[in-house]
Design goal:
The chain is α+β, with helices and mostly antiparallel strands. The chain has one helix and three strands; from the N terminus they run βββα.
């Protein structure tokens, strides 16, 4: 893991297309902005994890559905 320190109005570049901007610091919260191509999906980690769980459940449902179709 790379750990960097930034102040308000500073940024971090990831590759040549993704920029993380520090917009503000309020108490224990840091507001960041992410500039990235529309083809790059950006999610909060808890949303990303929920999407992964839903995808796994959908895959399991699809497998079960296909098995049921084979039996008929």
């Amino acid at each position: 893991m790379l750990v960097l320190s930034r102040k308000k109005d500073e940024s971090i570049m990831i590759g040549d297309q993704i920029e993380i901007k520090i917009l503000g610091i309020e108490g224990e919260q840091i507001k960041i902005g992410i500039v990235a191509p529309k083809t790059v999906k950006v999610h909060r980690s808890e949303v990303f994890e929920a999407i992964q769980v839903q995808n796994k459940e959908a895959l399991a449902s699809s497998s079960n559905f296909l098995e049921q179709l084979k039996r008929k």
